[in-house]
Amino acid sequence: MDGAVIPRAVVTGGAGFVGSTLVGELVRRGTRVLVVDDLSRGSVANLHRTGGGSAELLRHDIRDRGPLKTAFAAFEPDVVFHLAAQIDVRFSMSEPFQDAGVNVLGSINVFGAATATGVRRVVNTSTGGAVYSVGVRVPTPETAPTAPESAYGTSKLAAESYAEWFRRAEGLDVLTLRYGNVYGPGQDPRGEAGVVGIFCARLLAGERPVIFGDGAQTRDFVHVRDAAAANLAAALAPAPRHRVNNIGSGRETSVRDLADRIAAVLGSDLAPEFVAGRPGEVRRSCLDVRRARADLGLAAPLPLDEGLADTLGWIRTLR
Ligand SMILES: NC(=O)c1ccc[n+]([C@@H]2O[C@H](COP(=O)([O-])OP(=O)(O)OC[C@H]3O[C@@H](n4cnc5c(N)ncnc54)[C@H](O)[C@@H]3O)[C@@H](O)[C@H]2O)c1
């Protein structure tokens, strides 16, 4: 993969956490990038932070189809990385219509514009933490049954189905990556999404991390640079055998262990505080990543302690 160049790429959601990291990587490799983002959560500052500041930015809502099609046709991308999404699980439960508007209809618009422009490949983004059935084998392979608990998981899975429909009906070359819990520099430590950032910020402020429940719930934490690298690999793989691949570390880490590890990296002796668990929270989540590694030729993931040190270093710069 090293040295291979994608001449022109569109990155939807490219001003967000994962998207901006990918844009920075593409720019470093000499790719001309058009970011399509409505900046509802992302920012231009993210692009500057990751080295993606020279990318073109179209501030646009992917639900609005006409201008999206026009922009794709004018830019003529080789590859489209589709990361724009409504990512707030709780919002999806109270506003499933709004969630589906972005994640399903918006995705259809992106796949349609990509088809009309004749791109070489689309890399679609989904979630390994919210689509699989409760009680499936852990680590969970891509072949495990799906039955999302949340509206968010449902909309992401629906977008995967539409990707597959565009492939069959329109010949669109599209792959989907299902991420574990992505963490690392750039993730909003005040946000709802990232437990790593929240724990890091609290410990750095001399406060105890707050754990909902007993802390034995597990997650698969994957560094944002590994997620970006997986996108590049998915774009460049000459003939991937599978259309859906898990992107994670393949390691199951409990939330309690996570808090202890961050404290250890910091040399802090602050113990976590336990509060009542949140209903509906997934108990165990860890992805079987063997198929993705073989199919896409991925390198070994960054060890968690190194990724945590990296994240702490970044959060320190914010203070
Ligand atoms: N962060 C994780 O742990 C994680 C896990 C699984 C899957 N994902 C997926 O990865 C992708 C990126 O997530 P992220 O964590 O970087 O989130 P993020 O919120 O930082 O990035 C999403 C970006 O999409 C943009 N956006 C939202 N609605 C839009 C719209 N209607 N039109 C145009 N742009 C819009 C936002 O402004 C933002 O910049 C998403 O598809 C998400 O579902 C993330």
UniProtKB/TrEMBL annotation:
Gene3D superfamilies: NAD(P)-binding Rossmann-like Domain, UDP-galactose 4-epimerase, domain 1. Pfam families: Epimerase. SUPFAM superfamilies: NAD(P)-binding Rossmann-fold domains (SSF51735). It comes from the Bacteria. Residues 10-248 form the NAD-dependent epimerase/dehydratase domain. Belongs to the NAD(P)-dependent epimerase/dehydratase family. This is GDP-mannose 4,6-dehydratase. It comes from Pseudonocardia yuanmonensis. The lineage of its organism: Bacteria, Bacillati, Actinomycetota, Actinomycetes, Pseudonocardiales.
